[in-house]
DNA sequence: CCAAAAGTGTTCCGTTTACACCCATGT
DNA sequence: ACATGGGTGTAAACGGAACACTTTTGG
């Protein structure tokens, strides 16, 4: 193959910030790194890009390896290329964030990498610049979720309005009036009410809802306002 | 240096989509590529990342080389890593978009690369996947400018309300009521009225304004609404 | 029967929209 | 004096925010 003369070549990595929601707080999935440097330390799920795969393919492959999950919401966030970010050798890393239904994942715990969920508020120190990646990922999902319905990716197929509200409240570390919240959410037409109720957290029970997938995909780019004054909350 | 064994290494590039505004339409700056492959074809301003510079430093350096400009608004957009995007050799490119005052630039035309401005509506074919980069960059600035005051970066230090409105109208390919536009813009407190007028486009003259830089930086993250129904316009 | 969570409606206020006329001035 | 572009105000509609009581039912 003809090649560019005199240019440097670097190792290319991808790192995935995997978010989940357990019904109370936002969590991220970490593994103990399997190789040097920093072997055994907690780290994001990452890996190197192979010669014949795109960055998207690499991140999808790594996510599948480590969680067993396919078809996950995955979005490229930012590429980190500081020359000294990896002490072993110059490595450029493209960070993706992923949003998964934590319960789907829990059925998959049979893997070699022993990933664990950590609350974003109580996380171990991470290697390299991964702390910065996680902070940026949190800002990214706060920003994006203020405008687009991505947080549904964190919920199971059927969910209740109180669950959805707790999710938004925990992502933005705020409280929302439930009357206004349900009005805003239902006004989008994104939700389809089911006849069954979830009785696990109250005697009366809360109706289950499904996402209207048609509208979800069709209006994904529209601006939402489930959250009052989002810009006051995004930068936290 | 200790290195990762068995991993592939790739050439890392940066490409800059440089936007300018000539008072009528949005333009981007292109050069004729100086080396093979595709030598002589129109292309974005790009270059390779050197061993001891970050991606930001590389893009800033390349922008400086090709336009002579420092202190330009520059934002990382997306990293393109398809294995076959560059036929010469696998190259991963991180694309940045830049917003510059086209008039500042015009004083700098004395350089070896002969860059030229093209209307985004009438552009030559670009090499590799750069067409896709430009389209994504247009979507990005439409998206970002619907919420944040980045378009001021395209204007000179002093500008008039009609100029600002034409800028927004051309970015979104729409028309806006001038009464409502000026109310919305002035309500942000971002503009400081000057005593002088611009008489170049009317007999009466239009007042010049300056940006209130304090507020500009302090409230940069706040959501604006200079444009009615932005999401209908972003995806064009 | 009571505690605990779910569900629902109204009023008020601020914001956005639609819309039209007068102003300044160079020719 | 008139053509050209610049500047401004108001009323109506809409959307967002604040706010409290009733319902259900397992224990």
TrEMBL record, chains A, B:
Domain (Nudix hydrolase): residue spans on this chain: 9-165
Top-level taxon of the source organism: Bacteria
Stated name of the protein: NUDIX domain-containing protein
Organism this protein belongs to: Mucilaginibacter agri
Lineage: Bacteria, Pseudomonadati, Bacteroidota, Sphingobacteriia, Sphingobacteriales
């Amino acid at each position: 193959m003809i090649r560019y003369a005199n240019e440097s070549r670097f190792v290319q990595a991808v790192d995935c910030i995997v978010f989940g929601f357990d019904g109370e707080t936002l969590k991220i999935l970490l593994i103990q790194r399997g190789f040097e440097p920093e072997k055994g330390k907690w780290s994001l799920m990452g890996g190197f890009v192979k010669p014949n795969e795109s960055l998207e393919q690499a991140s999808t492959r790594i996510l599948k390896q480590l969680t067993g999950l396919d078809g996950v919401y995955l979005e490229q966030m930012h590429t980190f290329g500081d020359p000294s970010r990896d002490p072993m050798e110059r490595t450029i890393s493209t960070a993706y964030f992923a949003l998964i239904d934590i319960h789907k994942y829990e059925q998959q715990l049979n893997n070699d990498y022993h990933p664990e969920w950590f609350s974003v508020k109580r996380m171990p120190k991470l290697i390299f610049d991964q702390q910065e990646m996680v902070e940026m990922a949190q800002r990214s999902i706060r920003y994006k979720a203020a405008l687009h319905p991505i947080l549904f990716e964190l919920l199971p197929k059927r969910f209740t309005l109180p669950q959805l509200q707790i999710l938004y409240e925990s992502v933005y570390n705020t409280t929302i009036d439930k009357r206004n919240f349900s009005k805003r959410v239902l006004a989008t037409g994104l939700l389809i009410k089911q006849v069954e109720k979830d009785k696990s957290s109250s005697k009366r029970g809360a109706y289950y809802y499904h996402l209207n997938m048609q509208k979800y995909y069709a209006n994904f780019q529209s601006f939402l306002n489930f959250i009052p004054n989002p810009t006051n909350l995004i930068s936290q």
